[in-house]
Amino acid sequence: MPLIGWLFIVAAFALIVGSLLFLRDSANMKIPKDKLEKIRKRKAELEEEDKEKEDW
Fold first, then answer.
1. 17: left (phi > 0), else alpha (psi -120 to 50), else beta?
2. How far apart are CA 55 and CA 18, in angstroms?
3. How far apart are CA 10 and CA 24, in angstroms?
4. pTM of full prediction above 0.70
5. CA gap 53, 45 in Å, rounded
6. Burial code of 3-22, b = ≥16 C-beta within 10 A, e = fewer?
7. Is 36 strand, coil or helix?
8. How far apart are CA 49 and CA 55, in angstroms?
9. If DSSP states are collapsed to H, E and C, what string results for 22-34?
10. What is the pLDDT of residue 52?
């Protein structure tokens, strides 16, 4: 295989490994408690709106 082929294989492998490492790091993100509470409150509001729309 020519050198350019090996370079493409190495580049593709590096992109895959880098993406997996990035995903692993972003999975450990911590959400502050105040934002988490806002998210839960908004989710409850949306679920209530969906229930009201289903009753129509």
1. alpha
2. 48
3. 21
4. no
5. 12
6. eeeeeeeeeeeeeeeeeeee
7. helix
8. 10
9. HHHHHCCCCCCHH
10. 85
Report how far residue 30's alpha carbon sits from residue 21's, in angstroms, rounded to the nearest whole number: 17
In one-letter notation, the amino acid at residue 4 is: I
In this structure, which amino acid lies at residue 47?
A: E
Reply yes or no on whether the pLDDT at 56 is more than 80.
no
- Six-digit token string for 26: 């972003």
Please give the backbone phi and psi of residue 27, each rounded to the nearest 5 degrees, phi first. -70, -20
At residue 24, the pLDDT reads 85
Q: Read off φ and ψ for residue 28, nearest 5 degrees.
A: -95, 10
Query: What is d(CA 31, CA 48) in angstroms, rounded to the nearest whole number?
Result: 24
